[in-house]
Every structure is written in C-alpha cells, then in structure tokens.
C-alpha cells in the first residue's frame, strides 16, 4: 500500500505542531516538507498542496481560503482547522461522533472542516438533546467555558510563558465580550438552534485543557425529563464512541459523587489525549452539562488526525492512543 502524502500548511503554529507530533512513529504516511523560507510563498505552497494526498490547513481564515484556491489537483483532499469553512454546505463537518451521517460524509469528503474547540464541547452536549426533542431550538441557551492559554495561539503562549508577564495574566480572563465569537455560527447551525447562544469564554493560566458548560432549566425544556434522563440520552448517543463518553450521573448531593470527580470538574485532566468526557450534574430543576477535553486534542489536532484516519479508511484511533 502506497504511503499517503501529507502536507501541513501552517506547520509552525500550535495546531500544526501538534498534528506533526501525532504523526510521530506512523509508517503509513510521508510528510511533504516546505522550506522555511518558502512557507509564505504561494507558489511553493501550491506545489506542496497539489503534490499531496491530504493537506491540513492550520492557518488564519483568510490564508486558509487562499490555500483552498491554490488547489488544482482534484485528488488532493483538504482538512481545514480554521473557522473559514465550518458552516459551508460543500464541506463535511469533522465531528464523526455527532451522527452516523457525519462519519460517512467525512470518509467520502474531498474537504473537511475541523470543528472549533469550544464548539466541539458545546455540540457534543447540545446536538443530541435537540435531536431527541428535549432541547427546543428556541431555548435561550447560555454557554460558559474555560480554556488553557494554548488555544489563543503562539503570541498568547509567549505572553503567558514570559517570566516578566503582566499580573493580569495570573487570573482567568473573560473575553468575546461583544458576543461575536468566531465559533458561534457553527455552534448554532450544527446544534440545530434557532438563535446564537450567549457565549461566555475565559482564557486561564494553564497550558491546555478545556471545560465547556451549558446550564439548563428543566421547566423550559420541550419534554419533562430529569437530570438522569438527560444523562441517559447522552450516554446512549455516545455508547459506541471510541473517544467520547458520558460519565455516571454526578448526583444531586455533594456526597453522591457517582462520577468520581470529588465535587469538582478540572479542565485539564484530559490534556494530551483525544478523549472527551461529558458530565451531567445538578438536580431535576437545574441541570449542568459539562464537556471536558484537550483544546489541542479533541478540540483541534487530535480531531483533525481522527478525521484523516476515517478518510484513509483505517482505525480512527491510529496515532491517537
């Protein structure tokens, strides 16, 4: 079997570097390298893209659109980690666990949009409940989230790791204050919601990891359900998933910690993995849904490599164990 030729456009960024790390030791692919001095040269990039079987785009949105325009080889398949194509109808959305048709489309696609990190956690929680008729599309959804600073890019990483950094970086920092976060369009569309959620993200002083939380009032849901019913819906949806699992119901009382979390949900426990854990907590009036995962794993590079494996027709956990 011929080795798959893979090019990473933007291989020096955080996501690109992590994808390269996940290819270490694999003998089924060969990486196409671009000279450091040529990595912003459109002609050199075009040559690499069109020589590849698969090209990963780890670029800002405008550069990702430019890269797609550089493709002239119809056999080159693209996986875009930017925001540029996540709601485009002619791109497969790269979250195979959301539904069998997502996985099928990824397997057959010429171009796959890798989900946003926050959107991955949000969609894992909300889409199955919308599809089950529990979460009405017009529900006034609120989403809170905390992320490690690696998700903010190389410049932010340098700021946080600077020994002379400013004191404000010591505390969690709320952002996206204008409610225009770039993940909102995919959060709304892929979940099947009628309106954008109120989205309240924080960047925090740890390298990687993420917790995305959606609180629900059961009195506003489309069906009469308990917290345990909601957990059962999510658990059944991801029952056969390799990477996403729903933990046991966390319990209504602090002493009833069936999920084994000690009453706390840490955002960085799954750092370095491609796993995602869903936690349902609260009570039958107010339910808290939480997804925790690595923003650089299932939220970025791990998700991209998982999609590549599906496109190659090989076990999707290859290189992700």
Automatic annotation (TrEMBL):
One of its GO terms (cellular component) is cytoplasm. CDD domains: AGPR_2_C (cd23935), AGPR_2_N (cd17896). Keywords: Amino-acid biosynthesis, Arginine biosynthesis, Cytoplasm, NADP, Oxidoreductase. The active site is at 117. It is found in: Cytoplasm. Its EC number is 1.2.1.38. Residues 5-106 form the Semialdehyde dehydrogenase NAD-binding domain. It catalyses: N-acetyl-L-glutamate 5-semialdehyde + phosphate + NADP(+) = N-acetyl-L-glutamyl 5-phosphate + NADPH + H(+). GO terms for biological process: L-arginine biosynthetic process. It comes from the Bacteria. Pathway: Amino-acid biosynthesis; L-arginine biosynthesis; N(2)-acetyl-L-ornithine from L-glutamate: step 3/4. Pfam families: Semialdhyde_dh, Semialdhyde_dhC_1. Its main location: cytoplasm. It is an enzyme of class 1 (oxidoreductase). GO terms for molecular function: N-acetyl-gamma-glutamyl-phosphate reductase activity; NAD binding. Belongs to the NAGSA dehydrogenase family. Type 2 subfamily. Catalyzes the NADPH-dependent reduction of N-acetyl-5-glutamyl phosphate to yield N-acetyl-L-glutamate 5-semialdehyde. HAMAP family: ArgC_type2. This is N-acetyl-gamma-glutamyl-phosphate reductase. It comes from Candidatus Avitreponema avistercoris. The lineage of its organism: Bacteria, Pseudomonadati, Spirochaetota, Spirochaetia, Spirochaetales.
């Amino acid at each position: 079997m011929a080795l798959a030729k893979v090019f990473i456009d933007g291989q020096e960024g955080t996501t690109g570097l992590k994808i390269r790390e996940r290819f270490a030791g694999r003998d089924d692919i060969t990486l196409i390298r671009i000279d450091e001095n040529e990595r912003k040269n459109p002609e050199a990039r075009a040559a690499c893209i069109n020589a590849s079987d698969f090209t990963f785009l780890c670029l800002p949105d405008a550069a990702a659109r430019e890269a797609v325009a550089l493709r002239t080889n119809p056999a080159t398949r693209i996986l875009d980690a930017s925001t540029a194509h996540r709601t485009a109808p002619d791109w497969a959305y790269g979250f195979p666990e959301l539904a069998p048709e997502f996985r099928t489309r990824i397997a057959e696609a010429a171009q796959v949009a890798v989900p946003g990190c926050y959107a991955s956690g949000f969609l894992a929680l909300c889409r199955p409940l919308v599809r089950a008729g529990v979460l009405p599309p017009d529900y006034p959804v609120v989403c809170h989230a905390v992320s490690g600073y690696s998700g903010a890019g190389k410049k932010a990483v340098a700021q946080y790791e600077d020994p002379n950094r400013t004191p404000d970086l010591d505390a969690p920092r709320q952002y996206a204050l204008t409610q225009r976060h770039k993940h909102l369009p995919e959060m709304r569309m892929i979940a099947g919601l009628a309106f954008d959620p109120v989205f309240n993200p924080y960047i925090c002083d740890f390298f990687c990891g993420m917790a995305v939380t959606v609180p629900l009032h059961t009195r506003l849901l489309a069906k009469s359900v308990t917290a345990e019913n909601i957990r059962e819906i999510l658990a059944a949806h991801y029952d056969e998933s390799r990477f996403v699992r729903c933990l046991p119901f966390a319990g209504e009382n602090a002493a009833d910690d069936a999920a084994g979390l000690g009453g706390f949900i840490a955002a960085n426990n799954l750092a370095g993995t491609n796993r995602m854990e869903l936690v349902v907590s609260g009570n039958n009036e107010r339910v808290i849904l939480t997804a925790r995962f690595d923003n650089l794993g299932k939220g970025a590079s791990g998700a991209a490599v998982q999609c590549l494996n599906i496109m190659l027709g090989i076990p999707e956990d290859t290189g992700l164990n």
